[in-house]
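Section 4.2 – Deliverable D4.2 (structural model, holo form)

The reporting period included a commitment to supply a predicted holo structure for the target in complex with tryptophanyl-5'AMP. Inputs used:
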Amino acid sequence: MSNHKHIIVSGIQPTGNLHIGNYLGAVKNWVDLQNSGKYEMYIFIADLHSLSGKMTPDELRAQTRTTAAELLAAGIDPKKTTFYFQSRIAGHAELAWILNCLTPMSELERMTQYKDKTAQLKMSTAGLFTYPILQAADILMYKGEMVPVGQDQIQHVELTRDIARWFNKKYGAYFPETKHLLTETPKVMSLLEPNKKMSKSLGADHVIEMADEPGVIEQKIKRAVTATEGGGQAPGVINLLMLLQKFESGLSFPRLSTGESSYERFVKAEKDGTIRYGELKDELAKAIANYFADFRAKRAELLKNPAKLDKIMRDGAAKAQKVADKTMEGVRNLIGL
Ligand code: TYM
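Output (structure tokens):
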């Protein structure tokens, strides 16, 4: 039997503090996959991708660091996972160019994220357009076979698979056919507009950040939308119940003496119409606040020690660089450079 460990690659943009959508859709999965010991893992901070947005250099510099500290505090272990800043590995941009030359424009025009983003802008850039190609380069650079992401990234991972096929067809088998990997909660919804994906771009009150203090969490959840007109199960309630299920281990007493969990109790109450949303919200706010207590402490500790953080990221980049150099040598040979 081959002892090849399957290769997992994923990344996150440093556009803001991590929120519970990032956590339940991606980050928790990364930590669990890492700790299973079954995979070769590459996790990076997609700082080059963030240049397609509107952060200032100072904001980008600060937030890249914070995002690194947050991923470490969430459980990414640089001894088990190659963890680095994308921009430190120059080959990503080089490989992206090579893949640009294989990708039809019509395929990029189909990308829903591109269409959504450009619809809100007066002027779109080539960077926004070719964004998914850089993402394909991020993945293929490490020959990523599985990419754990949330639902909004599936299309980009599918394009990566197509790009790998186009490359292999033209130049000879080299890249794997990448697949996405989802969690049970690939699309966490906004607190205020529960028919939309939780995203910071909707506004700060739509998301709960993992670093939010208990009082802030309580306030945000209090304002969360629950029942809507028209009857039936309201999307806001479904979202809050799902969050309770995922975070109830943060409660001091997640189970009643009957053995029923807090989540099960609220689901039952919702079905028989006796649910009190205020109670559900109190319970959920407590669960989330406690669940991330350890995270908040570790995050603060890491941010106090920038030299340590820098060293972790430098060491990670050195590890990634070795793999990237090997991939690029193979690519250049195949394509005739
Ligand atoms: P980004 O930074 O927007 O999000 C990081 C991860 O969080 C997931 N996510 C969610 N999951 C569930 N519910 C939500 N509300 C929610 N919001 C975000 C995203 O699906 C993602 O998995 N283009 C990528 C970054 C990237 C990348 C890559 C990812 C660059 N190169 C290579 C994988 C492989 C992005 O902007 O994700």
